[in-house]
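Can anyone check this?
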Amino acid sequence: MKNLFAGLDVSTQSCKLIVIDLDLNKIVFNSSLNYDIDLPQYDTINGTRKNAGFGVSESDPNMWIEAINVLFGGLSKETNLICDIKAISVSSQQHGLVTIKFDGSLSRTYSKLWNDFSTSEECEILTDSVGGKENMIKLIGNTQRTGYTAPKILHLLRHEPENYRETTKVFLVHNYINWFLTGGRNGGVALMEPGDVSGSALWDPVSKSWAKEIINAISPDLIKKLPIVKDSRIPLGKFGKEFVDKFGFSEDCLIASGSGDNMMGAIGTGNFVDGIVTISLGTSGTAYTCMNTPFVDPDGEIACFCDATGKYLPLLCISNLANGYEAILKKFNIDHDSFNEIIDKTDPCNNGKVLIPWYKGERTPDLPEAAPVYFGFDVDDFTKEILCRAVLEGHIMNLYEGFTKLPIIPIEIRLTGGISKSRVWCETIANIFNCNVVPVLGEGAALGAAIHAAWTYFPKKSMNEIADPFIQFDEKNRIEPSPKIVERYSLFKRLYIAISRRIRGLTGENPFNLVAEYKKENEKM
């Protein structure tokens, strides 16, 4: 019998399925589905329902289930692999709220997602209820963010009390998928694990326990609606009979605990040893690293998360990344290669022109109602070349500013996500972060989930032993920083951070003085 293991990634815009062969050390099946294109009946844009309102981002959980059925159907029809899969692990977008009734049906038709900004008032209510931001950080190692799950639950209680009363189980996205795979309303298993539940803002990653003060501030009965939390290496159970009969999975196929997409992305990029940083370039931008001890940011901007291997995963997330890049491509009707060519004709630092790219609110810094800021632009500067360079550097600088809080000097940055295929993005990240950069080939989260399934099935094997043969790099885009360009960016980084701090009402350097200093330095070059 073959040693096959599957990884399923239910992300914001698409669903992916990977099967790995541990004997051959290769991926033997890889398929994906785009919700907008392949499931048009759900009428989504970028995987979310249209016209939901300002700051609202929601999806129908039935869409994810239908996508999984389509992918399983393809695996069953196209290959003879499915009966030999020994375990599957699920990765998914973090923080999304899925609620079900006693009969297993949805108590709310739509799931609020990680990029939903409609719960800022609930964040304030929860923070005030525990005595302020500092006390909140003491309780859960994090602040309350609109992206997190706790304010979504309070929003449901305040605005849809009947739906809350009918809710018997509260799930994160991947926990809901696990419940469904293990039988759903016919005996599905309701469990959580430390990685994904770290982002619920209801659970403390340091003490590894529910924060009952926050739970009670929402509703004393909420604790009864929450699944218990078990270790990431403990399997949940086996496939429900429906999936065995319909697709041909083995009755003995295990469902691993799974985790959030960032936790699985860490595994899929080899980020389970010291000194490695993963940056994911997709709908959002994230930067995270594996640590043996928890890191609690006193300002709450770096998320305090557990990973999926028993360690910790301090994580920075910015909500604006692909949106600005995709918008500039659309505005000028250019493709990725054309964008690269345009950037090659422009100078690093954009002659002191800075874009703060907070297009649709921002998660880090925590500004749900933020707007973009263009600094240093003359009336003739809104050209294709200058704007393309501004978008590129703005998004990366937004990520870099938050990254400076992470307690690490990286030895290597590994890139994942669609934009990581771009040479100019790789080069600019290397020079702004002053670190070697290499893109990881393949789908990091889905691959990480498949590796996690194998690691769960073989408890005596180390993560390195299982993962190393599968993690491959795009060596042609491995970039070392250029000392000359790194030096040019040193003043530019100070300028960006000064602008960012000043418009948030924080103390910082005078950006006008820095522009004058930049011009003097530029004249010497």
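Reply from J.R.: I decoded it. The chain has a mean pLDDT of 94.
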